[in-house]
């Protein structure tokens, strides 16, 4: 089956993107449709060259074209052509996507590798709270308010009070790490 193609009298005629972007900046939806038809393939190609993944490239190209719609008033013709501006947006967005994916992979890898033992103070607190025969004078690792310092008395009541203080310190240390 033959494919139908539009044959124009001037096949090299391309729409003037600069003029179209000016119309898009004024909210012209038909001008945006023309811009989309003109640059969507190129934006997808730039994204595909950076990302090497079709699905992500399509998302980036779509995001770029939405950004073109939103930021068309920011286009400055004296700084370069409209096509270069749009393709630069596509390239930057694709690079940002690569960096985002790599950062997420690094964070996941770091989280998996960070299975370190608890800090020594927490381990000591665990050991002390498990012991039934606590020392008579327990050196506390953190400065505590006066009521907890007054707990340093002898006897069974002191041991129970120290155990409560140790549990409180352990909770504080665990939640502050």
How would you describe what is shown here?
This protein has 177 residues and is an all-alpha fold. The protein has seven helices and no strands. The chain has helices spanning 17-25, 29-51, 54-71, 82-113, 120-130, 146-149, 156-176. Helix 2 runs antiparallel to helix 3 (54-71), helix 2 (29-51) crosses helix 4 (82-113) and helix 5 (120-130) packs antiparallel against helix 7 (156-176). The longest helix has 32 residues, at 82-113. It is elongated, with a radius of gyration of 33 Å. The model is unreliable at 1-9 and 144-155 (pLDDT under 50).
Largest sheet: none
Low-confidence segments: 1-9, 144-155
Mean pLDDT across the residues is 75
Alpha carbon gyration radius: 33 Å
Number of helical regions: 7
Helix-residue proportion = 55-70%
Straight-line distance between termini: 69 Å
SS class: mainly alpha
